[in-house]
Design brief:
The protein is built from 15 helices and six strands. By secondary structure, it is mainly alpha-helical. The strands form three sheets. A two-stranded antiparallel sheet has the order 1-2. The chain has a two-stranded parallel sheet with strand order 3-6. A two-stranded parallel sheet has the order 4-5. It is globular and about 60 Å long.
């Protein structure tokens, strides 16, 4: 089924034309120039105001969604060097390209919504995203406080990225061959801390200086975590018990089926432009090496094919609808030990 879909997509988007078009690089140039220019202005003039930090956070989020995400998937260019250089924009905004690839590409994309293997299903003691985790009394209101807790995600990324690279593990162990890259990325994390903690304090040694930079982490982290969260957590989503292989005896065990039913789309081309195509989460999970610029073109083809094959294809017309569905999903997980509105694809029994 998946190869048949690939053939249909290839008719409107030839494989050699699936990388980023020329105008994408204009967006890259604008985002990077703005961020470098604003940061230079703030440091050179020792101006650390909360509103400038918030704007910086917004542009950091757009860099994360539009540049590093495509680049670290290898979707920007056919040349690995171009993808590597642009992928390191993740390090510039406080994360780690290495840790992100290990967590997101190697694990999340291969095992989407797998209750055992997808790191994004881990949640926390306060957020129950995994039905296998214990149900606590306070989870009954997680659908309310969840959207507030997203504000601390930016701080977590900076700290956890450094620790994951330092210890060589994120949910699973990283390859020993990555040790030289881990050393480089550890220095990049230290460089980020120097840029946004030590340098501001050196120039303006006041506690208010640090407070003024906090919106950068909060805005960037919230924006990124929000759109990733609502795309895989919605009412009637599918979760898996084993994504290490395709099932042999039914259609809901195929790669195509699992990727489609565990993701959702929201909005259209405008949101795609700002969010690097992550609102077309279904198309992204099926074709992660296609530039997000092409998702609005291939989405109707994917949707029609899923309709033909009776594969549930979830698209929300507005962000508000997506938020409501996500809240209902969180309420379900927070109210029942066994959620009522979650479809569970169990592991195929050995013959």
């Amino acid at each position: 089924d998946f190869m048949e879909l690939c053939d249909r997509v290839a008719k409107v988007l030839p494989r050699l034309k699936s990388f980023a078009p020329w105008h994408y690089y204009l967006k890259v140039a604008f985002l990077l120039s703005f961020v470098i220019g604003l940061e230079s202005y703030m440091h050179y003039n020792a101006v650390y105001r909360w509103e400038l930090s918030a704007i910086m956070g917004l542009f950091y989020a757009w860099i994360g969604l539009n540049i590093q995400h495509d680049a670290n998937h290898g979707a920007v260019s056919r040349y690995p060097g171009v993808n590597r250089v642009l992928g390191m924009s993740q390090n510039w905004i406080g994360g780690s390209a290495l840790s992100w690839v290990h967590q997101h590409v190697v694990q999340h994309h291969l095992h989407t919504n797998d209750v055992n293997l997808d790191p994004d299903m881990a949640g926390s003691s306060y957020i129950r995203l995994n039905p296998l985790k214990p149900l606590m009394g306070y989870h009954i209101v997680q659908h309310i406080y969840f959207f507030g807790l997203l504000a601390v995600y930016g701080f977590s990324v900076v700290i956890q990225s450094f620790l994951q690279v330092l210890y060589g593990a994120h949910h699973t162990a990283m390859s020993p061959l990555l040790v030289p890259h881990r050393i480089f990325e550890s220095f990049m994390s230290v460089f980020f801390i120097c840029r946004w903690v030590f340098l501001p304090l050196y120039q303006v040694p006041q506690l208010s200086t640090i407070w003024s930079t906090l919106p950068m982490y909060m805005v960037a982290g919230y924006y990124l975590a929000f759109f990733f969260s609502i795309s895989h957590n919605f009412k009637d989503v599918y979760m898996m018990e084993d994504t290490t292989r395709e099932a042999s005896n039914h259609k809901n065990g195929t790669f195509l089926y699992k990727q489609v039913v565990s993701s959702s789309n929201v909005g259209g081309p405008i949101l795609c432009f700002f969010n690097g195509g992550l609102n077309y989460q279904i198309e992204h999970h099926l074709f992660p090496r296609i530039s997000h610029c092409h998702y609005p073109v291939i989405a109707p083809i994917v949707r029609e094919y899923c309709k033909e094959k009776s594969i549930p294809y979830v698209h929300f017309d507005t962000i508000a609808e997506n938020i409501r569905s996500c809240a209902l999903h969180l309420l379900d997980l927070g109210s029942h030990q066994t959620p009522k509105n979650v479809h569970f694809i169990q592991k195929e029994k050995s013959q």
